[in-house]
Design goal:
186 residues; alpha/beta; 7-stranded mixed sheet; 6 helices; binds 5-O-phosphono-beta-D-ribofuranosylamine
Length: 186
């Protein structure tokens, strides 16, 4: 199988990144993670870049010049898929339009419900019966691209915000890889 060169964008813990790297090493998983991008030099998830020997770059997309630089880097490395995994910056429309490949994101709610930040708080305040995560294509509007896959669970009455976060993350770790297989193993 020819694996697609892929890049994962992170800002924080990187548990989704870890799972994606592990799965990408399986023989029939359709991507190879050849680059990691972080906007945050202190992102904990960078330990996985070091652990697995994957090159990483910092990207501050507030600056136009760095967008051009990073797009050139993607071209050079033939990156065809970007997976946003807890990346806390919004990509510019220009960046999204200029990248020659697919960009996907994982979000900790059942989109279109609860776009943006503080998802778990919103789930609690709205007294949702069910929640979960969504993997979707990235377009210029926040958390609004076409859904690839969702996974959900029923909220029990004893579930605290922290428990809901943990349950959601567990599902995310399955959903992201499944979504990649769904779009690439056609
Ligand atoms: C995930 O819950 C993801 O849905 C959200 O940010 C979190 C990142 O977690 N966008 P991690 O860094 O992968 O552990």
């Amino acid at each position: 199988m020819v694996k697609k060169n892929s890049c994962v964008f992170i800002s924080g813990k990187g548990t989704n990144l870890d799972k994606l790297i592990k799965n990408s090493r399986l023989y029939n998983f359709p991507i190879k993670i050849t680059l990691i991008v972080s906007n945050n030099k202190k992102a904990k998830g960078l330990i996985y870049a070091k652990k697995y020997g994957i090159p990483y770059l910092f990207f501050d997309n507030k600056k136009n010049l760095s967008e051009i630089k990073i797009l050139n880097e993607f071209k050079k490395r033939r990156i065809k898929l970007i997976c946003l995994a807890g990346y806390m910056r919004i990509l510019s429309k220009k960046f999204i339009m200029s990248f020659d490949g697919i960009i996907i994101n994982i979000h900790p709610s059942l989109l279109p419900k609860f776009k943006g930040l503080n998802t778990f708080e919103k789930v609690m305040i709205n007294k949702e019966k069910r929640t979960g995560c969504s993997v979707h294509y990235v377009n210029k509007d926040l958390d609004s691209g076409k859904i690839i896959l969702k996974k959900s669970f029923l909220i029990s009455k004893n579930d605290t915000l922290e428990i809901i976060r943990e349950k959601t993350q567990k599902l995310e770790h399955l959903a992201y890889s499944e979504a990649i297989i769904k779009i690439l193993n056609k």
